[in-house]
Amino acid sequence: MHELGHFLLGHLGEIPFSRSEDDCRPAEEQAADKFAIDMLAPACVLWGMKIRTAEEISELCKISPEAARFRAERMKLLYEREKFLSHPLERRVYLQFLPFIRQNRK
Q1: Which is nearest to 42 in space by CA: 51, 55, 29, 53?
Q2: 52: which residues sit within 8 A by CB, 6+ positions away?
Q3: How deeply is 28 buried, as exposed, middle or buried, from its count of CB atoms within 10 A (0-12, 13-18, 19+)?
Q4: Do 70 and 34 contact (CB within 8 A), yes or no?
Q5: Of 46, 65, 78, 89, which is least surrounded by CB within 10 A?
Q6: Which candidate, 33, 96, 47, places its Cα nearest to that of 75?
Q7: What's the Cα-to-Cα distance from 12 to each of 17, 27, 49, 70, 71, rounded to whole Å?
Q8: Are the C-beta atoms of 51 and 101 separated by less than 8 Å?
Q9: Which of 31, 27, 41, 23 is nearest to 5 (CA)?
Q10: What is the pTM of this model?
Q11: pLDDT block averages, 10 residues each, the chain of length 106
Q12: Which of 46, 51, 73, 63 lies closest to 2, judged by CA?
């Protein structure tokens, strides 16, 4: 999913990587990571299932513990803001996953 993110985000290898200010990893790598985690562990689905920990995320979404920790940190902020389902696209994703959520919710 990370590599697909590079393709869909237009990282075609023609332009040298740029670095972000807060990380020594290239900005394109961070963007591809974010794309992958958003696709493999959608925040609205985790919210609907009441999933909070990295361990739960890793097990449910079949992603690495490192990726799950990254998502869990972001989920903590999202839970604090209580801003789930505020975007129409997020609501559509949630509704598409609703049967799965209901079947697997804790």
Answers
A1: 51
A2: 46, 72, 75, 76, 79
A3: buried
A4: no
A5: 89
A6: 47
A7: 11, 14, 36, 25, 26
A8: no
A9: 31
A10: 0.78
A11: 86 62 74 89 95 95 94 94 92 96 87
A12: 63
Per-state percent for the chain, helix, strand, coil, to nearest 5: 65, 0, 35
Structure tokens at 24: 């020594």
Q: Tokens 């992958």 correspond to what residue?
A: 36
What the block records as the tokens of 83 is 């801003």
